[in-house]
Amino acid sequence: MSKRAQRKLEHIQHTLALGQQRLNGFDDITLIHQSLPNLSVAKIDLSTKVGELILSSPLLINAMTGGGGIDTMKINEALARAAHETNIAIAVGSQMSAIKDKSEQPSYKIMRKVNKDGIIFGNLGSEATPEQAKIAIEMIEANALQIHLNVVQELVMPEGDRDFTNVLKRIEKIVQHVDVPVIVKEVGFGMNREVAAKLSEIGVAAIDVGGFGGTNFSKIENLRRQRILHNFDHWGISTAVSIAEVISIKGNISVIGSGGIQNALDLAKSIALGASAAGVAGFLLKLYIEKGYDALVHEIINILEDLTYIMTALGAKTVDELQRVPLIIFGNTHHWLNERGID
Ligand code: FNR
């Protein structure tokens, strides 16, 4: 097995072993209950927009895996089938390995095969060239392309990158050369408003905040290291704060909340903070591997049903209305936003 394939399997194993932290900041957010919502569950409309893409609901399965053989192929097939069955969007894991080695392409292509008309996002790192971006999009007929930023993960990864120069320029080139929307995402360390403003300026369609508080790639990579690097284990901007930071730039850019999202309330709070959709990765992967395909599909259906109940209790008929419900921010999240002058 190649080193890259081995690494992917280790990421999955360590994700399962470490589980999800509950540090995403959503416990600091309270949505204000409405006793007179004047709304019925049947009237709730979950459809939403990310850039120009219309999604039937704001839940998406975020980028995880691909390449590396039979195990990842099976996982990707199951995740894509579940996305198809529940009509939600899904992202593939980084496609760079399949660009470098064509024999790895089937584990990505399977996702389009079992989810012909669904919304599927491609995924590459910020080292990608515009040509590679085009190949990744073509490979799975992607509806959008995610570019991930993962500086801390690379630094903790023994074999990771050490040079992070000219990243914004490369993303700008990709934005100019591809004909699908580009989504820039973090992988669990969050995003601040200064970065968001730079991405908005170069024409990125959406930011997936990839906030701190769920899957922790510093801890995951540490499990693969000889000399442990603990400095980054508690490093990052929580998901709740990241959403508020990115929304505060008021740019023409959609926001996807992600990082430790595990249930409909986390999803509702992401949207109430201003996101248009929310991505779930580690929680659904763990559920599928430990409990199987049917449990995965039921969980997605339950999250969507629960979301309609929450929206009803808040009097929010649409995602747009949910984005504007009143909320109270407590604790560290309140403190952070106050210090940064974000209201
Ligand atoms: C990831 N993630 C990820 N992200 C990305 O952009 N490209 C990738 O290839 C991967 N690979 C990957 C593998 C595994 C096993 C996991 C668990 C995650 C990161 C993922 O998309 C997400 O940003 C983070 O995991 C944070 O979200 P959760 O897991 O807390 O919901």
UniProtKB/TrEMBL annotation:
Cofactor(s) recorded in Swiss-Prot or TrEMBL: Mg(2+); NADPH; FMN
Domain FMN-dependent dehydrogenase: 168-324
Binding site for substrate: 7-8, 153
Binding site for Mg(2+): 154
GO biological process terms, semicolon-separated: isoprenoid biosynthetic process
Compartments (UniProt record): Cytoplasm
Recorded GO MF terms: FMN binding; isopentenyl-diphosphate delta-isomerase activity; magnesium ion binding; NADPH binding; oxidoreductase activity
Catalytic activity: isopentenyl diphosphate = dimethylallyl diphosphate
Family indicated by similarity: Belongs to the IPP isomerase type 2 family.
Oligomer status and interactors: Homooctamer. Dimer of tetramers.
This protein's name: Isopentenyl-diphosphate delta-isomerase
Organism expressing this protein natively: Metabacillus sediminilitoris
